[in-house]
Design brief:
Order of helices and strands: EHEEEHEHEE
CATH superfamily: Gcn5-related N-acetyltransferase (GNAT)
Strand content: 35-45%
Largest sheet: 7 strands, mixed
Number of helices: 3
Radius of gyration: 15 Å
Number of strands: 7
Number of domains: 1
CATH class: Alpha Beta
Shape: globular
Structural class: alpha+beta
Distance between the termini: 39 Å
Helix content: 10-25%
């Protein structure tokens, strides 16, 4: 069983490195904007199995550095993390959740109802496309009257 909880940014660094940037050092995984984000970890049998960082700008939420332990991939952990942060985004007034998806992960995001945009770019030899999902946040009690 997988549980998801908020974690400190430095607890994301090891998986970020191991999964996304194996040639880098753990210390290089720290992003200056980490202090402004909310970081989530998925735990399986009390082991950190996946991480993701979420950043809010108005009603738009960007998630970054989604990483699942290689030994635990294809077990629904990444999907669970995305469902969790999508719900979090909706509950916090978000109308859009998006990411810079590696092109080799487009299929994963499409299965989760993300839409591929025309915004494509390369950075450090990796090709990306911006993928997004438009959301309708739940009405507050006052708005529903």
């Amino acid at each position: 069983m997988t549980s998801i909880e908020q974690i400190r940014p430095e607890h994301t660094w090891q998986l970020r490195r191991d999964v996304l940037y194996p040639s880098k050092t753990k210390h290089e995984m720290e992003m200056p904007e980490d202090v402004d984000g909310i970081h989530f970890g998925a735990f399986t049998d009390n082991k950190l199995a996946g991480v993701v960082s979420l950043f809010q700008k108005g009603t738009s939420f960007q998630f970054r550095k989604l990483a699942v332990d290689a030994a635990m991939q294809k077990a629904g952990i990444g999907s669970s993390l995305l469902a969790y942060i999508t719900k979090y985004t909706e509950e916090n007034g978000g109308t859009r959740i998006w990411c810079n998806a590696r092109t080799d992960a487009i299929g994963f995001y499409l299965k989760l109802e993300f839409v591929e945009t025309e915004d494509v770019f390369s950075k450090n030899g990796i090709d990306y496309v911006i993928m997004e999902k438009m959301l309708t946040p739940p009405l507050t009690l006052q708005e529903s009257r």
